[in-house]
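Anyone up for a design puzzle?
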């Protein structure tokens, strides 16, 4: 029961951060908190069942891999699309070829 309440609180915090923030990095972090809440709820529901079902655990593991990859791509896009991000991210001064 405790983990279901914790998942609900994390979900609400993630939604609040997603809709209240204007900064894209904060939105990305809020989206990660939101997905963590969903994963926690899935594992909590799977642990209550007797016998323990392995399918939700496999789904959560797959979701974690997808979340890490999409977060990496989103961070790369944020760096690339930020003002001066494409040159300064590589350590070169702006305008230097």
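Challenge accepted. My sequence:
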């Amino acid at each position: 029961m405790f983990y279901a309440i914790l998942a609900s609180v994390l979900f609400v915090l993630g939604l609040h951060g997603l809709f209240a923030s204007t900064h894209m990095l904060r939105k990305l972090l809020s989206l990660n908190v939101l997905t963590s809440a969903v994963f926690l709820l899935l594992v909590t529901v799977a642990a209550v069942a007797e016998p323990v079902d392995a399918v939700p655990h496999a789904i959560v593991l797959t979701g974690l891999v997808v979340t890490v990859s999409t977060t990496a791509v989103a961070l790369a896009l944020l760096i690339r699309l930020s003002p001066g991000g494409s040159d300064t991210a590589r350590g070169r001064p702006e305008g230097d070829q």
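A detail worth pointing out: The domain at 1-81 is CATH 1.10.287.3510 (Helix Hairpins).
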